[in-house]
Hints:
Elements: H1 2-25, E1 48-50, E2 69-79, E3 84-89, E4 102-105, E5 115-121, E6 139-140, E7 146-154, E8 173-176
Antiparallel strand pairs: 1-2, 2-7, 3-6, 3-8, 4-5, 5-7
Signal peptide: 1-31
Pfam families: SCPU (PF05229)
Keywords: Capsid protein, Signal, Virion
Amino acid sequence: MRHTLRPLFHAVARIALPVGALLAVVPSANAVTATTTFQVTATVLKACLMTTPATLAFGNYDPAAATALSGTTTFSVTCTFGTPYSLGLNAGTSAGATITTRAMTSPTAAAGNNKLSYGLFKESTHSTNWDNSTSATGYTGTGLPQTQTVYGQIPTAQYTAAAATDYADTITLTLTY
């Protein structure tokens, strides 16, 4: 078996030796590299989004109660870092309502006795009315959700203004940035 492989080895050697000699004659090439740089850019635009507040449900109102009835709802605003924004609440949908004296109405109560007054405020002491301002309300985006609370209050002793039934109003919340 040794003798049968010998001619094969000779044939391979006759081919491999000239190819190897040819490779030894070719000069080796030195690699050359070139580098450069380029810019990567983007412009971050001002952007904000907000969640929809849940219903501000006051519950049962007793005009004879010694204190006003209070309730709250929350929402969050997320704006790009450093973006100033404003939040405004309109007067609602009741005819004659203003941002300082909002009114819920009842479709089942008699006209003239179908409004229940209430207020919306920026803090729990109910001293700063939440108006419909679209500028300069002092909010600045942090890039993270910022929770806002709307504090509502129904004044006491509304005996003649509102008959005993259900009342509702719809408020529009405006985010300006």
